């Protein structure tokens, strides 16, 4: 028999990829609780319309009565908790919602889960898991020569976003140790792939390059991120749910460390190749170095050997194959992009980029200010 799960934030980027993956593989019904903030989009789940295995509920993870009611009604075998405010730049401009959703919201989820779990017996109780989806940003920043983050790396969050996720991880840990809630935490590196909101580096650069707009590289563009294709994140979460040990943390990463400038260069080359008729070719000439993000972490890198060794997970996409798939997806889904980049999105772009002055790049001098 297949047991249902409750997913939070399943209309967002990673959540919707996970839900599509889960339902596509016929792993059991999903109740999807999402507030549909600017980042949540039911269009991501359009292919699930009419699928009796998918129940969408619009609501806030901070609504205790709602979450408790859903747990009692649907009796899921797991909660997969994605819902969060997720964009570092937004957390710098307005940290309040990050504290409310990421900390208070997770607290509410834990309280509801605890009450539900206390009422479970036998196999249902044995089976239940609370899987908390977190980020590598809780570990802070690395120098170029530091070893990659591992599960015992001390927490040192530097942005309001990272601090709020770190706080939520600590709550999850406390609910395990104090109340015996069977929790597991995953800390994942930067994801990319279909359905990512074009405020994040990769989809923003694709959208801007195709529209002939500036490609805003923060600071010198030498910051390093460890990129993971979102489908590989979904498969990691599946194996953690199936075989992960209660109380453990698993780091998830693709082993693809790239500087931001390398990412933008690769993206521009892919666009030059895949859109040969583009009047903005070569797209790299649109790169514009802009004022750096305050408190910008220099480097993230994930050591995923625990997940790979213990649970036999491995990423299927290389950065090159994953990025090509991603660019192709955005090219084939221009309508999705134009639907999510109207209205509130335009206001955000003005707010975040309006005050950033152009600065001379040190990494690739001569490419700055092409537009
Ligand atoms: P996202 O911003 O694309 O989606 C977040 C979703 O949560 C949206 O659908 C939104 O409507 C929903 N949501 C927000 N506040 C809510 C609330 N109060 N109640 C109910 N729903 C709410 O985020 P994402 O990139 O898909 O990230 C998902 C999770 O993975 C987050 O917890 C994030 O911290 C974590 N994570 C993300 C990355 C990444 O690279 N994107 C990497 C590691 C970990
Ligand atoms: P982002 O996608 O916001 O993820 P995170 O901050 O969680 O790592 O940014 C990835 C990197 O790209 C980060 O170092 C900031 C940088 N960046 C830019 O240089 N320009 C941009 O316009 C954006 C959105 C990000």
Structure write-up:
The chain is an alpha/beta fold and 371 residues long. It has a domain at 5-193 and 229-252: NAD(P)-binding Rossmann-like Domain (Rossmann fold, 3-Layer(aba) Sandwich), CATH 3.40.50. The protein is 42% helix and 14% strand. It contains 13 helices and 13 strands. It has helices spanning 13-24, 64-74, 88-93, 96-118, 122-127, 160-179, 201-211, 230-243, 260-274, 305-311, 319-332, 334-340, 344-354; strands at residues 5-8, 30-34, 54-58, 78-81, 129-135, 183-188, 191-192, 215-218, 224-226, 228-229, 249-252, 257-259, 287-290. The strands form 4 sheets. It has a 7-stranded parallel β-sheet, sandwiched between helices. A two-stranded parallel ribbon has the order 7-10. Helix 1 (13-24) links the parallel strand 1 (5-8) and strand 2. Residues 361-371 have low confidence and may be disordered. Bound molecules: nicotinamide-adenine-dinucleotide (NAD) and thymidine-5'-diphosphate (TYD). The site of nicotinamide-adenine-dinucleotide (NAD) has 29 residues, from helix 1, helix 4 and strand 5. Residues 88, 190, 200-201, 204, 216-218, 223, 225, 260, 293 line the site of thymidine-5'-diphosphate.
């Amino acid at each position: 028999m297949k047991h249902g799960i409750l997913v939070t934030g399943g209309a967002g980027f990673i959540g919707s990829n996970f839900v599509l993956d889960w339902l596509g593989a016929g792993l059991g019904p999903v109740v999807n609780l999402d507030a549909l903030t600017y980042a949540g989009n039911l269009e991501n789940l359009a292919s699930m319309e009419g699928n009796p295995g998918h129940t969408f509920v619009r609501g806030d993870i901070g609504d205790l009565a709602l979450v408790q009611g859903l747990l009692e009604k649907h009796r899921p075998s797991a909660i997969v908790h994605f819902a969060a405010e997720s964009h570092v730049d937004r957390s710098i401009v307005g940290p309040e919602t990050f504290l409310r959703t990421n900390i208070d919201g997770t607290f509410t989820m834990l309280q509801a889960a605890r009450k539900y779990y206390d009422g479970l017996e036998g196999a249902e109780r044995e089976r239940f898991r609370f899987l908390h989806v977190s980020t590598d940003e809780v570990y802070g920043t690395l120098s170029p020569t530091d070893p990659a983050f591992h599960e015992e790396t001390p927490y040192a969050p530097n942005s309001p976003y990272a601090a709020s996720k770190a706080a939520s991880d600590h709550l999850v840990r406390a609910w395990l140790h104090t109340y015996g809630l069977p929790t597991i935490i995953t800390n994942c590196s930067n994801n990319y792939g279909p359905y990512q909101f074009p405020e994040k580096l990769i989809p923003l650069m694709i959208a801007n390059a195709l529209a002939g707009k500036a490609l805003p590289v923060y600071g010198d563009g030498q910051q390093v991120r460890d990129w993971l294709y979102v489908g590989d994140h979904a498969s990691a979460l599946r194996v953690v749910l199936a075989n992960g040990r209660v109380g453990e943390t698993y780091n998830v990463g693709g082993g693809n460390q790239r500087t931001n400038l390398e990412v933008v260069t690769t993206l521009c080359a892919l666009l030059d190749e895949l859109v040969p008729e583009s009047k903005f070719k070569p797209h790299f000439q649109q790169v514009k170095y802009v004022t750096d993000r305050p408190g910008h972490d220099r480097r993230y890198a994930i050591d995923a050997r625990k997940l790979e060794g213990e649970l036999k997970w491995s990423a299927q996409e290389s950065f090159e194959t994953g990025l090509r798939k991603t660019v192709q997806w955005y090219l084939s889904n221009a309508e999705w992009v134009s639907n999510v980049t109207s209205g509130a999105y335009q206001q955000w772009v003005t707010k975040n980029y309006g005050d950033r002055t152009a600065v001379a790049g040190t990494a690739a001098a001569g490419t700055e200010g092409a537009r």
